[in-house]
Structures are given as structure tokens and as C-alpha cells.
Amino acid sequence: VERKMASVETAAEHERILREIESTDTNCIGPTLRSVYDGQEHGLFMEKLDARIRNHDREIEKMCNHHFQGFVDSITELLKVRGEAQKLKSQVIDTNRRLQDDGKDLTSSMEELQQCRVQQRNIATTIDKLTHCLPVLEMYSRLQEQMRAKRYYPALRTLEQLEQTCLPRAGQYRFCSIMAENIPKLRIQIRDTAMTQLRDFLESIRKHSDKIGETAIKQAQLQRSLDSSVSTQPRVLMGRRGRKEAAAAMAAALGAGTDSGGQGGSPLSEQDSGILDVEDEEEDDDVRKLHPSIHPSIRFDLYFNYYRKQRRKQARLVLQPHSNMHETLEGYRRYFNQIVGFFVVEDHVLHTTQGLVNRAYVEELWELALSKIIAALRTHSSYCDNPDLVLDLKNLIVLFADTLQGYGFPVSQLFDMLLEMREQYGEILLKRWNITFRQVLDQDNYSPIPVSTEQEFKHYTSQFPLQDPELEKLPFPKKLPFSEFVPKVYCQLKEFIYACLKYSEDLHLSSTEVDDMIRKSTNLLLTRTLSHCLQYAIKKKNVGLAELVQVIINTTHLEQSCHFLEEFISNITNVPPDTANATKLYGTSTFKDARHAAEAEIYTSLNAKIDQFLQLADYDWMAAVQGGGTLDTSDYLIDLIAFLKSTFSVFTNLPGKVAQTACMSACKHISTSLMQLLLDPEVRQISMGALHQIHTDVKECESFARAGPVAGFQGDTLLLAFSDLRQVGLFQEVDPSLRWERLVLGSWEKRSRTSRRRDRTGRLRCVLLENTGCWAVCVCVCVCARAVFRLFFFLRKKRLAGKCVRA
């Protein structure tokens, strides 16, 4: 069974191989045959192969037998056609011969046409090559002309186009190779020359930055004046038109510098002026617009770093002020012109180039410059003591700030510094007005102003708001109650307010802030400057009572005019005076203090004048009693009373209390001085004749007081000033035997209830009693009486007076 199965498998395998041989290409039959020879049954396979060959032979034979008759018929037909084919061949040969004979002319014509076509193609190729080469030659020729003309920026543009566009199109020619070899050399030459021109450019803008700044400031000033005349809205920042004007200003300034320099000046040719041309926004803003040396094939960072480094050095030089800059306004103007010119150039470069400078670099440079500018201005402005110069400097700083603000630079710190300078300006104004007030006070005659015509009256009332209907009704000539000092001081106060207002202009302050600033400055003027000047005028050695009286009258009228000053400030600042948190003027208190000082000085001066008269008193303390007749008042006292009458007559224009106080003070001072004469330790004894003279003088003083030199006293109030001196009269009117008793006990009960009982009264009694021979007894009685009364009042205070009296 196994052998049978093996033979079946072998037969199947041989059958497969035979099918594969029949169906496979002859080139791939090798592996199949190898498998046969590798096996053990190749003999059996050969048998199978022979049987298959025989089988195919039989099939072929059958097929040939089936188609043999058709093959014979086909051969018969071919033999019939052969004769016709020979005839056709001869006809074709004959036709070909005739065609060849006829086509010789056509062939020659075609060859000529072919040659023409080749020539035409060569001509077209030549024209095409020339079309690419001629622009190269023309551009190279233009490059040479630009190099000779030193127009480096167009030369770089031409060089770039030649290298990147024209030469690749032209192809590989010898002249193109020569040009390509020369391009790096030309670029190096342009780079070196451009660096030199960049240095010249930096030197030129440094040299002419002050002119650029001056032109920019003038344009800003003109723009501000136009804006203020057209509209009250704040001015917007400069746009493209403003930058074009700035560019034109720079070009004009640089061009002027070049023309003035001639051939030996800064080399500023047409390429430099092209730097300052601001193109439209849609045009190319390439960095090459700045300077011809900037080119894509050249390292940008080399020029950028060099430019920025040099500009920083120039900035340090520009920001360094001159040592004597504070002396004149022109020094500040040159300083600001250079700074504005520097930053106008930087702003122009920023907006017309890309990459050379950027916004961060410009802002950093401006912040550094701003801090140095503020420090320099603070230092130099501190040396200034002229308010006009400070005001001009403030206006110049405002114009400087507005100019740079128009270019987009932040200037808020400058306005903050101006607010700080306002205090310095106020101090300088106070110093100037201190001198002015002192001059007015020194030049014043301290007399009422005589007015003889209506024009003069209107002149003074226009200077000072006088509100006196009764005075207006009086006929001319008449006198104003105050002196020239009042209208002059009032006008100077208004001038000071105007000066403060001028400084607050253009500082972007609100009306409330301006009003507050003016009021505070005016308060300083009133409380410090004017107050000190009034004190100076009052305390002067050569000021008389009439002058002091006029000072009081003047300060009274100035005090009444304070509300007019407040209205004046409100009118110029457009801020109502009753606004909440509004600063009030301290003029009322200032003039009150001055008036009180003048009143005190009147009292002091009046007492000093009285002392001068009393120094003339020459009493003979041991004078004998004159028999018969009355004694005459002392000469010094007559002169003193005449002086007091004339003085108090001047006090009619003073307030009632001032005149009354001065009169009472004078009478008390006379009484005290006479009492001191009696109690002088050097006076050991006083005769009755001397007492009679003292009594006569006291009666004269009482007569003066009773006459009422100043209106307003009630009853005998003024006589109370001489009550202590009445002891002299009591002493000399009593019988000599009873004088000591009357002096000691006569009026104790009546006068013990008042506060006028003093030790000096007791001392006066002792002095008087000394002359009666009862000195020892008087002393004892006085001591005992004083002790008893002191005990009485002490016990009465403790509510034990009744018990003590009974005891």
C-alpha cells in the first residue's frame, strides 16, 4: 500500500512538473528541471515526458491534416500574385526615379531654408543674450558714474540690483566674472567711505542741533499761538505734517551750516539732505533711508552700535550745562535748543528708519536726559534772584516741554519741577516786594492826601477802593484820610497777584488750583513781608506820634479793603470767593496786628515823651511856704499839658478806644512819675512849700483830665489816675495837729474797699508825717493799722469776721 501511495505521489509530482514546463517561460525552466534530477525517479519522469511528447505530436499531426488543403490553396494564390507584384515593383521604381529627379530643386531649397532658420535662431539667441548683457553693462556704467559722483546710496542700490538680478540673468561671461570680482571691492570702498560720512553726519547734527532745536521751538511756539487763537482745546501731538516741518527745519539748519562752512565745512551733500526727507507712509521705510552706508550686505549692528554709542556721548555733552547758564536767559535758551535739536533728530530717525533706533532706546535716553535736565535746572535756578528772569525761564521751560511733548516725549516731570520752582519764585517775589514796601514806607510823608480836583479824586479812588459817601459829598479841596502809602500798597498787592498769576499760566492747572496758589502766596506776602515792613516802619527811631497815628489810619483802611482783594482774585481766577475749601486772605489779621503794634508804640512813645518833659522837673523839696497869693504851675507841666492837648487833637481820626487808652495811659504815667518823685529814696525831707507846689501841679493835671482831652470818658474816670496824688492835698489842708490822724485813719474806711490802696500810699503818708515831728508815732500807728486791717480782711474772707469783732 505504501509503495502504491508513493508511486501515486510521484506520478502526481511528475504531472505537475510537466504542466509547469508547458506553461513556464523557457528561461525559467532550469529550477524545474533541477527538481527532477534531484529526485530518484528521473527515469520514470523521462517516460512520462516521452509519452507527453508523443501525445502532442499526434495532436499536431491531426491539426496539420485538418488545415493542409487550405495551405495548398494559399500557396496557389501566392503564385498567381507574384507576377502582379513584379509589375508593381517596376512601376514604383520608375515613380521613385521621377520623384527623385523632381525633388532635387526642393531639397536645395529646403537646405537653404534650414540654413536661414539656423541663422535666425542664432540671431534671436544673440539678441536675447544682448538683452541680458546690455542692462548689466549699462548698470555697471551707471555704478561707475555714481561712484565718481560720490552718490553712494544710489550706487549701493545699483550694486545690489546688479549682483542679485542682472548678473545671474546675463550668464557666464568673462566681463560678468570681472564685474562679480569687483563688487566686493566696491562694497568695501563704499563701506569705508560711508563710515567716514556717518562720522561727518554725526558731527554735523551735533554742530547744528542748536539751530534745529531753535527752529523746532519756534514752530511749536507758532503752533501754540495758532491753537490759542483758533480754539481753546489742548493741542494734539504733531502728526506727519509736523514731522515733515521738523525735517524741513533740520534740512534748513544743516544746509545753512554747510553753506556757511564752504568747502572746508561739514560734508553735507545731497545724500545727507536726503536723510532728512520724510517719505509718505506707503513708501519704503527701509533703514537705508537714514544713511547711504546702511546696506543689506553690510553688517547693521556695526553701524547701529556706532551710531548709538556716539549719540550717547553727544547726549552727555548736550546735557552738560555751562557754569554761567543761570546768569542770562540766553544761556538757558541755548541749553534747551541743543536738547530739543538732539531729540528732534532722534525722533526723526525713529520714525523714518527701521532698526537704527527703537522706541525703547529713545525712551531710555529721554529718561536719562530728563533726570539730568531737572537736576541742572534745579541747581541753576536756585542761583537766580530776579523774578523776571525766573518767569522768563518758566515760560521757556513750558515752551521746551510743549515742543518735546509734540514729539511724543513725556514731560510731566518738567511741570512738576515748575510747581516746585513756584515756591522759589514766590520767595523771590517776596524779597522784591519787601524792598518795594520799604521804599513806599520810606517815601511816604504820613499825611492825609490833599485832593483839589475831581480828576485827582478819581485817580486815587481808582487805585484804592475808598467807600466813604460823606467824603464824596464834601466840596473840593478836601483830604483823603489815608496817606500815599495806602493806594501804593494796594496797587503793589495787585501787582503781586498779577505776578503770581503770570507764573501759573500754561502750567495745566485748574482754576481752583491757580486760585489757591495765588491766595497762599498773597497770604505769605501779607503775613510775612508786609507785616515785617509795617513793624519796621513802626519801630523806627525817628517815627513820631503823628506818623504812628497815620499808620493806624492807613492799616484800618487797608484792613477794610481786604474783601476787595478777595474779589479781585476771584475775578481773575474765575473762582467764586465762597467756594468750599477756598483759602481766605489773612490781611485782616495782618493789619490788625500792625495796628495794635502801632497803638502800643504810640503808648510807649507818648510815655517816653512825657518822661522827657518830667526830666525837666526841678522841685525844691525844702522850699519855704510863700505867704499870700497862689503858686504857679511848674513850667515843665505847662509844656507837657500843651503837648498832650496838641497830640490828643490829632487823635480825632483814631478809633475812640485807642485815643481813650492813650489818654488814660498818659495820665497814669504822669501820676506814677510824680509819685516816684515823691518816693525817691534820695528825698529825705519835704517841706510844706514843696508840698504846696506838688499840690498845685496835681490840681493842674486834674484840671486837664476834667477838661476831657479825649471824648468818650464817663464822669470823672480820667481823674482816678491822679487819686493817689490827692494825698498831698489832704495833707496840706488838714490842721497840723490832726494831720497824722487824718492821714492814717481819715479815709481808710472809705478807701479800704477799693484796690487802689498800695504800699506807696503808706510810704507817701510816712514821708509827709516826717515833717510834722510825729514820725515815730505815725510809724507805729501805720504798722498797727495795717496789721489790723489785714487780719480783718483775712477773717472776713473766711466768714469769721463777726466772731472776731465781738472777741
TrEMBL record:
All residue ranges annotated as the Exocyst complex component EXOC6/Sec15 N-terminal domain in the record: 48-217
Entry's transmembrane regions: 773-793
Chain intervals for the UniProt region annotation (Disordered): 255-274
InterPro entries: EXOC6/Sec15 (IPR007225), EXOC6/Sec15_C (IPR046361), EXOC6/Sec15_C_dom1 (IPR042045), EXOC6_Sec15_N (IPR048359), EXOC6PINT-1/Sec15/Tip20_C_dom2 (IPR042044)
Gene3D superfamilies named among the record's database cross-references: Dsl1p vesicle tethering complex, Tip20p subunit, domain D, Exocyst complex subunit Sec15 C-terminal domain, N-terminal subdomain
The family this protein is said to belong to: Belongs to the SEC15 family.
Full protein name: Exocyst complex component
Organism: Sparus aurata
